[in-house]
Known about the structure:
The protein is mainly beta. The chain has helices at residues 2-19, 94-100; strands at residues 23-25, 29-37, 41-52, 55-61, 74-76, 80-88, 105-112, 115-128, 134-137, 140-142, 148-150, 163-170, 174-185, 187-197, 203-214, 220-229, 250-252, 264-268, 271-282, 286-299, 301-309, 319-321, 324-330, 344-351, 357-365, 373-380, 384-397, 400-411, 417-424, 428-434, 439-442, 445-452, 461-470. Among the domains are: 2-90 and 159-185, no CATH class; 94-150, no CATH class; 382-470, Sandwich (Immunoglobulin-like), CATH 2.60.40. It has two helices and 33 strands. Strand 8 (115-128) and strand 9 form a beta hairpin.
Amino acid sequence: MNRLKYFVLFLLISLVCLASAPLTFAGSVKSASVVVYNSGRALVTEARSVKLPKGLASVVFKDVPTTLDPTSVRASASGMSVLDLQYSYIPITTNNLLNRYLGKELTVIMPDPTDGDARILRKATLVSNVDRPVFLVGNEVYLGNYEALLFPELPKDLQRQPTLTLTTDNKSAGKRDVRLSYLMGGLNWRADYAVTVNAKGDAAALDAWATLENNSGRGFTNASLTLVAGDVKQASSPRRNGYVKAARYMEADTLGAAAPLPPSEEQFSQYHIYSFGRSVSLAESGTKQLSLFSAPTVALKQELVSLFNASRGQRSAKVEQNVELSLRFTNTKQNGLGRPMPAGLVRVFMPTQDGRLLLAGESRIGHVAEGGETKLVLGRAFDVTVQRSQTSFKKLGKNSYEMGWRIEVLNGKDTQQSLTLKDRYSGQWKVTVTDQNYTKPDAGTLEYKLMVPPTKGGKPMVINYTVQVAY
């Protein structure tokens, strides 16, 4: 029993000592390093000057983001030990204000019951804020419209900005640089690519940009910036106060200046990181683009592809097939590229006959490693059309059938067009009759590679074949 009394007394003395710890405020950020992941968060490391007393102290950091994850905070300085930390942020919102005035009196501006165009002021007590505010005006309950509420004062626990408070134990007094690191949300980045195809259509210039979006409300000045490309797993966590997306703007980092050196790229675990050898500033809200790399001549191939997924049933109506325009290129040095390509949006520009560059299509890509192949589907062909009709169908057994197809291809251009027809079948299948050579690139695909001449006279190019399928 005596041991329990001594333990309780020790806790009380400790709490009194902590409560009486002198209060000191950290200075502004002297330097910052920002590592941005393409998953909507960032790792921030910053240095701040703090005047620490000897022994216990409460160190307050005011300029911290609202999207900070308090469980990720780490702080260190010479001769300083961190005993605990507290992150406090109750924003000034309508709901928070109302909840703090439950059972208290405020002023309600409401319609005048004797004059629909007039307004009156009434002292009222807020009795509920569950669904909508409910007021007690005198002895009557008021549940109706109001134009505004006037609060006598701002509750002290509501904050315009969050604060982070560290309780520290310091070996000696003096001014020190505290290294503070934390994870935060509201910062994201992606890759954006511009592919400019040459007049022949067999090569293109590729420019890669990193697009950073900051919706955190926290800006950074002259920070060291690193971007991590890859799918870094983030464990789910309890939902915290969100953040408001402010109006966005676009800022090109190289606008009106000489193009800066590209960032250095290196492997990190199973990811890639891009480090910029210069300071970068990020506004508290907006979008900024930074040059990643350029490849002046990347060999590519344009393709027209029409895909058909064959079903098991009998068809009586004709089938109109889409013809898609796509670009293909391999990510190798021999092909003029050979760089890791983070996931993002690719915009393709092609020249007109008079040399103007117009947008020919957009396509999203995943992460493409060096040596990988990229396919960009740009849109549907205008002049090349494909139509098919079923010429025969019969059951061969319980789980097998035979069908015949007639495929008509029209080319409205003045020049011949290269077209790939892909028919996909499930189960076991074989072609028994065909009037064109075909290939079998995989177990489920029948492929015809055609050179379609101009067909402005209306006479299509025709392909006939019969296939047997078992499933």
